[in-house]
Amino acid sequence: MQRILDLFFSPHAFRDVLPDVWLGFQTNIHMMVIAEILVLIFALGIAVVRGLPGRAAIPLRALAIFYVDFFRGTPLIIVALVIGVGVPSADAGWISSQSAPTYGIASIAIIYSAYVAEVYRAGIESIHASQRMAARSLGLSYGQTMRYVVLPQAIRRVIPPLLNDFIGLQKDTAIVYIIGIGEAVLAAQNYSTAYTNFTGYTVAAVFFVILTIPLARFTDSLIRQRELRERAAA
Amino acid sequence: MSGESFVQVENVSKSFGDNKVLSNVSLQVAAHDVVCLIGASGSGKSTLLRCINLLEKVDAGTIIVDGQNLTTDKLDVNKLRQQIGIVFQAYNLFPHMTVLQNVTLSPRKTLGLSKKQAEARAYELLDRIGLREKAEEFPDRLSGGQQQRVAIVRALAMDPKLMLLDEITSALDPQLVNEVLQLVRGLSEVGMTMIIATHEMNFAREVASKICFLDAGVILEEGPPSQIFGDPQEPRTRAFLSSVLAAGRM
Fold this sequence. Notes:
Chain A is mainly alpha-helical. Chain A is built from 9 helices and no strands.
């Protein structure tokens, strides 16, 4: 028992490793914030393209469907390795000379955009057809109807599931340590390799949990507020 | 007669899959006239209105409004819909917008009115129906009757030359019906051309210059209200009217 406590919860190791893990965790925060912003924008674009009407939009729709199918099915770790190790080795100029966190952000954004696009799509499809009909009957174009009537309602509706995906995204910033990003997990690993002590992982885990809990509670409260509102309206 | 009609519907047919909703429907509406469509649910009233607004595409036949053929491919449907207002049974207000935003959205975005111009016009219309103080409210804070009046005003804000009303009182509590009908009455008095699908027979008799009885996608009988309600020729019309009477709706 004492051995386990020493390995995972050593006060001495805690003091030693805390600054390094904290420094690394700042990189996690940096990656998650930028990735989330990118995902919000890019996923909305995919969802809108996927819903475009008419025969002329078939190639675009097909592209959006392919994107979602492909990247929802691909493990993040593969995308991270391809982008974080493969792209820099390709000697392709500007695109091959970015920093490791940038490749990490790109990998996360690519994968999560596929998930979040589906969340947006569910929201768009949940808006009753009579809303589009009312908007079109007033002479608004398809684009104006999306912009002013459908998307504002759809986005409001999907905020809770979207935040849920963001909780997943935040944790997955740990996965990209595989391409040598100096984030929290790498710091913990370095310490564990050097001192055969795993307290750094415990510290990193606590950081992630601390960051996730407020978001989870916030999501819960949004859902509760909505239920109350809908019960009042019914 | 057909040459001077404001709305000319000629031999219009429309199916949804195997379900033929309209077959060879023809209808003439003179400018400033009010035509009421009556008939059972599923007789094709709503579909006919939606075809005139191009919310549904007709399978065959032509529709001409104010000399403009709506059934050609070259038509700018958005432009056309800006001139033809439609109000629905379920109001269909935009729930994320205030009353004022509901009313000003399309005038601003499609007619190019400034926010100030659009709001001035909206307030003028809201004043007329006594809902000015609700301008900043969201639709779910309004009664059904108020919501439907806002929906009518939203359509009127586009300054349409034709109004289509699709069973606009059917979803309302009985005590709220009259405030909506009063508004429609006012529109007919100022000469708005309207086609109204309705189950309110007394109202139809009062405001309509012509009644059309639809049955299974066909206009079975049409004529002035005195004739349709007083001396219907078709057995189906008689059966429909007597069932309405028995239900206490007339």
